[in-house]
Known about the structure:
It is a single chain. The chain is 58% helix and 0% strand. It is an all-alpha fold. The protein has a domain at 17-79. It starts with 20 loop residues before the first helix and ends in an 8-residue tail after the last helix. The model has no long low-confidence stretch (mean pLDDT 80).
Amino acid sequence: MAPRNPRRPGPRKPVSGQWWQPGVYGSAPAVALWILARLPAGLLLSMTGMPAAPAWLNLGGDTVFVTGWVASALLLWFTRRRPAPPAAPTTDAQAAAETAAIGASGTGSALGG
């Protein structure tokens, strides 16, 4: 039987935000525009009055689709978790290190002279 322990200790942090939503919500209108572009040319001409309506609907669908997924990628990139910066030594630790260096030289001079 497989153990039920999590592979990583500690609480799991989900990806902050719903990064996929702009792409998914942009895909639905894009698909609708692509479907409208496939309607018969006479029907589109009577509805829009533009002979180039299928091309414009295709372009609109492409634009909405790409914009949604680029927004998802940017959201995922800017909300990613970054590792914590290394901790800088505190002033107490620096003072202790300097004191140890002075004591090790035996002369009382930090330059070792």
